[in-house]
């Protein structure tokens, strides 16, 4: 996902297009409500909002798919990224995401200090020409909403879209369903 999400977390958020293809079970995404907060954000301070977001991201799995602009996207591989830890940093809108990235022969854990912008109560994880050791330089925008993520990614002259569901750390992963 870091190569495609140009992180994101995955996801975040995280994007990498060379992931192994797997069949994903069809499930409804859980709602993004790790703590109670008014729907309009009234009464929630920025510090409370940031703490709620960091709590929701810690341990979360981003499970989804990606596209590559200009390529045949009929068989989109599934990708999965785990955010082991997310914490708000003291500087501006930065969060430190520590994520495990697995694709092809790569299996690594990276700490990444990423800006999270807010569109009202909706977080947008951003990367702007960020170099990731061993992976390259990426840009991306990933919107987090209602237990799902979607966004765009760029890596050199390649780019595309990414989307999927977020499984919070407290939620049990549903058992795969057999296809007839």
Q: Give, in spatial order, the strands making up the sheet with the most strands.
A: 2-3-4-5-6-7-8-9
- Rounded average pLDDT: 77
Task: State the low-pLDDT regions, or none.
Answer: 1-38, 175-180
| Tally of individual domains | 1
SSE order and pairing:
Elements: E1 9-12, H1 46-57, E2 61-66, E3 78-88, E4 94-103, E5 106-119, E6 122-132, E7 136-145, E8 148-155, E9 158-167
Antiparallel strand pairs: 2-3, 2-9, 3-4, 4-5, 5-6, 6-7, 7-8, 8-9
Structure write-up:
- This protein has one domain (9-167).
- The chain contains one helix and nine strands.
- The radius of gyration is 16 Å and the shape is globular.
- A hairpin with a 3-residue loop joins β6 and β7 (136-145).
- The chain is mainly beta and 180 residues long.
- It has one helix spanning 46-57; strands at 9-12, 61-66, 78-88, 94-103, 106-119, 122-132, 136-145, 148-155, 158-167.
- Helix content is 7%, strand content 47%.
- Residues 1-20 form the signal peptide.
